Amino acid sequence: MLCIALLVAEVSALGKAVLHKRVMDTEVEKRVTGEPLMSAKLYALRYYICLLGPIALISGWELGGLPGRAATLVLYEIVAPLADILLGSGIVGEKLAGNRVHRVSTDVIWFQIPLYLWVVAHGTMLLWMTSKTVALRWFEIFCLSWASGLVTSVSIAVAHELLHRRSSVDRSLASFLLSTVMFGHYRIAHNEHHRRVATAEDFATARFNETPYEFVPRSVFGGLIFSFLSERNRLSAKGEAWCTLHNEFVVNWGMSIAFIGLIWLACGIEGVVAFICQALVAISVHEMTTYIEHYGLLRKRREDGKYE
């Protein structure tokens, strides 16, 4: 109930915060898709479904009992896939498929609001989760952190979207999300992934016949090592020391360590274990998604040495 109240209260404030964003012109959309702006609203509805995750988790655990505590699993494993099937592959996207204009602006307010609401929901849920562990047994802490990790795995996807924005506010929110799932180096690694994707050099592309158990460690540690070395080399080229506030790797991981310290002081070792466990689950879910998306893809090298 607390989460519901906070989300509703933030709608007006966050709505104002995104008004400065460029909103798609209704007449332009009519010419492109043959539909008014309502089509974008309907298409954007699917992105609000993720907000049910924190609500289900908090409400279920507060209500108690097996049904309540299983609510998150039911939502993510049954309800979400069914909703995705029922909503279809996209109202606006299908109409744009045969048109010269292939992109619907992601600056439309209906697409912005769920991103910012998610940041609020994410922070609220983690505060609740860590404080909840004080009164739980270790088995319950494990179950709660596992369910929380399913929810916070969405935060990596939201952070990915925000990282590709030009706004410094959006990028800062992305850093906050990633730091709270101990994945602060993701932006650095992901930029390299864009360049090397579907090549043998990419640590985030699953090779043919590579199992998930082989891929996930290679991707996680490959991205971690690359990000550290990349920032160190970048600053070294400028004549700067690597351990400074100009080092994004250091700053974001410093935030993660700071969060752990604050949780330790406020909630003890139970809160720290829950925080780390939810982060591991979130990262694992993200990496498994990456495994499926890029499995077996391989670009050929052209005669000029570049990839196709």
TrEMBL record:
Give the species this sequence originates from: Rhodosorus marinus
Taxonomically, the superkingdom here is Eukaryota
The UniProt entry, under InterPro entries, shows: AlkB/XylM, FA_desaturase_dom
Its protein name is Fatty acid desaturase domain-containing protein
Q: Which residue spans traverse the membrane?
A: 43-61, 73-93, 108-129, 141-160
Could you say which protein family the record assigns here? Answer: Belongs to the fatty acid desaturase type 1 family. AlkB subfamily.
Residues making up the signal peptide according to the UniProt record: none
Enumerate the UniProt keywords alphabetically: Cell inner membrane, Cell membrane, Iron, Membrane, Metal-binding, Monooxygenase, Oxidoreductase, Transmembrane, Transmembrane helix
